[in-house]
Every structure is written in structure tokens, then in C-alpha cells.
Amino acid sequence: MKSRRNFLKALPALGALPFLSFKGLERKPTATKKRYQKGLVLSTWNFGLKANEAGAESFQKGGKAVDMVEAAGRRMEDDLSELSIGLGGFPDRDGHTTLDACIMDHHGKAGSVCFLEQIKHPVSVARAIMEKTPHVVLVGEGAQQFALKNGFELDTYKNPEAVKAWKEWLVKSEYKPVINIENHDTIGILAMDAQGDMSGACTTSGLAFKMRGRVGDSPIIGSGLYVDNEVGAATATGLGETILRSCSSFLIVELMRQGMSPQAACEEAIQRLVKINTPGILKVEDYQACFLACNAAGEVGAYSVHPGFTYAIWKEGKAEVIPSKSMLG
Ligand code: ASP
Q1: How many beta carbons lie within 10 A of that of residue 20, not counting itself?
Q2: What is the per-residue pLDDT across 253-291, written as a single tens digit (0 to 9) for each?
Q3: Which residues contact 96 (CB under 8 A, 6 or more apart)?
Q4: Count of CB atoms within 10 A of residue 106's CB?
Q5: Is residue 9 part of a domain?
Q6: Ligand 1 centroid to 235 CA: how many Å?
Q7: Are 86 and 184 spatial neighbours (Cβ–Cβ below 8 Å)?
Q8: pLDDT for the residue 178
Q9: Suppose 218 and one of 2, 153, 202, 273 were both cysteines; which one would form an S-S bond, judging by CB atoms 3.0 to 4.6 Å apart?
């Protein structure tokens, strides 16, 4: 104990010694390939096509990547018929729709909002947190107060379809977080602008009929989203708890930093996630997790646990939906 204290006291003086140079933590210049600068928008699931359109419009107007991802997120939040994003989303088990979102720009700045109620555009609230406060995350009532003070309006909209589904769920009230394996959920968005800079965003109403206060991976920097302009960006969708346990988006970016392609990094991160979450925590049959990534050269990768995951891509004016490869089948 004593010798440890002495060692800690001596630390400042040791700063210059070579054995404390943290060699392994140095940032390696990975961007050996040319940066992609022709405009790229990627979004999770088929409905990403609609989000990408908004991202592409922003690009064509000269928007930066952060404007592109915000525009894409807002387009989804505007659609109140969506059952997994924005105010139209399924409520929690007490009947309240609570929203999570985050955003990261090419400087590595980040903003996140969790457990936000009655505000239509959580992705823009996340951006305002990033740009107007010294913080990264605001939650619940405080986040709502911040939004109201910053020009967002209270919106009490409830989607009749979501309310009906909740009432049907209440009959049994069986609390079992299930995730759509082949259906759309959270939107995760990655974009590159004309300078080749990249940003990302995520927006969701989270799991249907979740416990009140539950927050998934989507607004958590490093889990649902991570962007390092030097290397690449990654986003996730699926059962948030599995992704939170494995800090997947950060992992994918770090694997790309070490030289992996976006595809190889997504595959490795899925293997890691399954290893961490199974067995003992969950059965692999019972959850889906999906990743989407790109690197600074504009190369794209995607991978999921189960088949069914798709992503939308807008690149050089061409829009399409691509089925992701998966670990099981
Ligand atoms: N990842 C989201 C969450 O756990 C849900 C999803 O992507 O389907 O809240």
C-alpha cells in the first residue's frame, strides 16, 4: 500500500520516462486510402430510404454531414405513423412514449437525449445539447425543460395505432422484451459530406412496452453510435441491452482503426456480442442485433445476428436497399 502511494506521488516526475509513453494507445494514421467526398448516406432498415432522401437533399444544398444526419433523423420523426421512432412510437408499459436520440459530428462532439417525452424532434434536441451546452447527455424532465427553453414545443400527440397495440398488450401485460428480427426499428444514420467529413445520428422510441425509464443503446455514445472522422463510423439497431453490454459501435470503429474493413469489423463485433450475451444472459434465438459501418474511404459494411436486417444507401445519387449478411443463415 505504502509503496503504491509513493509510486503515485512520484508519477508527475516519471512523466518523461519512456516506459510510460502509452505506446499502444497512440492514434495510428489509418486513413491510407483516399477519403470519399462524393456524398454518402447510410441508414438502418428499409425505411432508411426515406431518411436517406432527406440526407441527400441536405448534401445537395451543401449541408455538412451533421446537417445530413439531422435532416434524415427529422424526416423519420416527422412521420407520426412510424411505430418505432418519434412521437408515433409504441409507448412504455405505463402508456407513455419516451424517446432516445444521439448525434456525433466530425469533430468528435456528441449530444444525446434519453427518456424524452412530448417533443417531436429528439435528434435536434441532441444536436442542441451538443452545440449549446457543455454536456453530452440530458435525460427526462431536465431534457424536456432544456428543449422547451431552446425553442422546441410540447407536443402531446399519441398514435392511435400504438395506443391500440398497448391496450392489447395490457391484457396479458407479459413483460418480455422482444425485438423485431425482420422488421424495422430504430434508425441509425451515417453520412459523409463533400469534404469527406462524417457524422452519425440515431433516433428511436426504443423497445415497445419497455419498463418506465428504460434506455437502450441508441442514445448511448459508443453503443448505438460512434464516429471518429479519422477512421470511420458505426451504428446499431436491435435489442439494446445486448449492444450496451458489448459497446459495439465503439468497438467497430476501433477494429477499423486497426485495419479491418467495415464488413470485417461488423462481423467481429457480432461474434463478440453473441459471446458476451450468450449463454447465461439470453438465448441467441431470442434477440436480434445489427450493425452498419463505413470508413473514411466510403467503404460500407453491415452484419446482424439473424437474417432480415437491411440497410439503405444513397451514394453518388443512387438510392437502394441492401440485405445485410448475418451470422445465422
Ligand atoms: N436498439 C433499440 C433499443 O434497444 C431498439 C431497436 O433498434 O430496435 O432501444
Answers
A1: 10
A2: 999 999 999 999 999 999 999 999 977 778 898 899 999
A3: 117, 212
A4: 22
A5: no
A6: 11
A7: no
A8: 61
A9: 202
- What is the span of the domain harbouring residue 128? 33-326
Report if residue 19 sits inside a domain.
no
Q: Can you give the CATH number for the domain in which 115 is found?
A: 3.60.20.30
Residue minimizing CA distance to atom 9 of ligand 1? 206
What lies within 8 Å, CB to CB, of 152 at 6+ separation is 119, 120, 121, 124, 125
- The total domain count for the chain is 1
Q: How far apart are the first and last CA of the chain?
A: 54
* Annotated catalytic residue, options 186, 235, 242, 310: 186
Q: Which atom of ligand 1 is nearest to the CA of 237?
A: 7
Query: Is 220 inside a domain boundary?
Result: yes
Which residues does a 6 A CB cutoff place in the pocket of ligand 1?
179, 185-186, 204, 206-207, 216-218, 237-240
Cα 203 to middle of ligand 1, angstroms: 9
Query: Which residue is it, cell 457524422?
Result: 199
Distance 241 CA to ligand 1 centre (A): 8
Q: How many helices (H) and strands (E) does the chain have?
A: 9, 13
